[in-house]
Specification:
By secondary structure, this protein is of the alpha/beta class. Helix content is 38%, strand content 19%. α4 packs across α5, α4 packs across α9 and α9 packs across α10. The protein binds 2'-monophosphoadenosine-5'-diphosphate (ATR). Involved in the biosynthesis of the chorismate, which leads to the biosynthesis of aromatic amino acids. Catalyzes the reversible NADPH linked reduction of 3-dehydroshikimate (DHSA) to yield shikimate (SA).
């Protein structure tokens, strides 16, 4: 019988996950289907129990359910640290994972960027920043989190410091911090459609040994990445993080490494 997978969230209609996973299932000739379901936080528990009872293969969670899920699902240590679950597996009860940081890690590794031992400057202190900061600190990077609201960066860094090296600060000395960094990651919404002129830094702030990774993928080439190219820095686009977090979820559910290029094509066609 066909196995059902899904993403729960609200809003969820524009999620790229169904296209991405269904393309992978088709390519691998697996009898599976992935669908988006609109679920509110109040209904998350019922929805998860229902999905498990109906034999779902697994689900992803998106806004506004990732934190709420911690009350319901047994989280692994990384997801518990991040404080958010984006992947639920039903094989053995209800296990929760967070593959967002792994998605960022694989995106950089694919571009031959080393994380261990590197100085990583993460700008922003929201959900994406949390996932990346925990993962990269665990992987041995030295993390600085810089945020417009300084206290949020300081609070997040003090949590991340439990698994590795991290400190938090405001945006005042961002130029000096970039000069000392190997990797700069934008986890703010600056540069996102429709305000595409926004950027956390310009070419003068950057150096040619820097890798600049923007998690914004609408547009794919953000102002920040244009500035990075101008400075001769390595520019890494954000859609790969979405694809790799999906690929990691796919592996948790099925034990199979999905075809990345097929998933990428499906995501790019939908952008
Ligand atoms: P996500 O969950 O996707 O990471 P979020 O939680 O909405 O997104 O976080 C957005 C981040 O972008 C925050 O760090 C926010 O800074 P504040 O904590 O000070 O609000 C940052 N951000 C949004 N607009 C910004 C701007 N114009 N300049 C600098 N940072 C900005």
């Amino acid at each position: 019988m066909r196995t059902v997978f899904g993403v729960f969230g609200d809003p969820v209609a524009h999620s790229k996950s169904p296209d991405m996973h269904n393309a992978a299932f088709r390519e691998l000739d697996m009898d599976c289907i992935y669908h988006a379901f609109r679920v509110s936080p109040e209904n998350l528990k019922d929805a998860l129990l229902g999905a498990r009872a109906m034999g779902f293969g697994g689900v992803n969670l998106t806004v506004p359910l990732k934190q709420e899920a911690l009350k319901i699902v047994e989280a692994d240590s990384l997801a518990a640290g991040i404080g958010a679950i984006n992947t639920v597996d039903f094989k053995d009860g209800m296990k929760g994972y967070n593959t967002d940081g792994l998605g960022a890690k694989r995106t950089l590794e694919e571009k031959d960027v080393t994380i261990k031992g590197s100085n990583v400057l993460i700008v922003g202190a929201g959900g994406a920043s949390r996932a990346i900061a925990f993962q990269f600190a665990k992987d041995g990077a030295d993390i600085i989190i810089a945020n417009r609201t300084e206290q949020k960066a300081i609070n997040l860094a003090s949590e991340v410091a439990a698994v590795g090296s991290a400190r938090g600060c405001g945006l005042e000395s961002i130029k000096e911090l970039i000069a000392e960094s190997d990797i700069l990651i934008n986890c703010t919404t600056l540069g996102m459609h429709p305000n595409t002129e926004g950027t956390i830094a310009t070419a003068e702030d950057m150096h040619p040994d820097l890798t600049v990774f923007d998690i914004v993928y609408n547009p794919l080439e953000t102002r920040l990445l244009k500035e990075a190219k101008k400075a001769g820095a390595k520019a890494v686009t954000g859609e790969m993080m979405l694809i790799y977090q999906g690929a990691e979820a796919f592996k948790i559910w099925t034990g199979v490494e999905p075809p990345i290029n097929v998933m990428k094509k499906a995501v790019l066609e939908g952008l």
